[in-house]
Amino acid sequence: QVQLQESGPGLVKPSQTLSLTCTVSGDSITSGIFYWTWIRQPAGKGLEWVGRVFNTGNTDYNPSLKSRVTISLDTSKNQFSLKVTSATAADTAVYYCARLRGYFYYVDVWGQGTTVTVSS
Amino acid sequence: QSALTQPASVSGSPGQSVTISCTGTSSNVGSYEHVSWYQQFPGKAPKLLIYEVNQRPSGVSNRFSGSKSANTASLTISGLQAEDEADYYCSSYAGGSTLVFGGGTKLTVL
Q1: How does pLDDT run across A36-59, given as a tens digit for each residue?
Q2: Which residue of B has its CA nearest to A42?
Q3: Judged by CB atoms within 8 Å, which residues 18-77 of B form the interface with A?
Q4: pLDDT tens-digit map of A58-108
């Protein structure tokens, strides 16, 4: 079955870049049906959509984060990545990578999530 | 992009039905059928319950149902069970290839 696994540093210093990678198994990120997406959740709070990438490399982002976020693909490794620049404490959250069904915009497969803390 | 509005908490007794609302605007819920619902247990990733307003993925109990009227979508859980106690989130396509989530609702089974 399709599985997604997040990886990356659990601790990032303020003003630095938060970087995470999602490794996909059981599906190809070059599939034309799905988008690959990042969603985050601060402790005790709700879900926030960060952005998504299509197999063409086309991206769309949450307008509130757009200036600091980049999502990219590595098709050779079947991975996609997230970078958030100028990190602050407000970026501290559990980050989920997930598969987003194109056109219908529902998330059908989630990674287990990884906690990232922004602190000095 | 403001979050969709959900009640912070709802509760019900076993066997009863509860409904969770999700209020958006004409820019998201009111304009698209791309409304989904997710169930999340503490420390776990969310799970898809409903997509396209009222469609259930394979394996999801028919006790979960969805509907929409104007700018408000709703999730109804019938025959409430203790195992339904969790957080529930709605989401909607918001135009411009973006997605927006609700703030979440904590369901307590009394």
Answers
A1: 999 999 999 999 999 999 999 999
A2: B103
A3: 34, 36, 38, 45-48, 51-52, 57
A4: 999 999 999 999 999 999 999 999 999 999 999 999 999 999 998 899 999
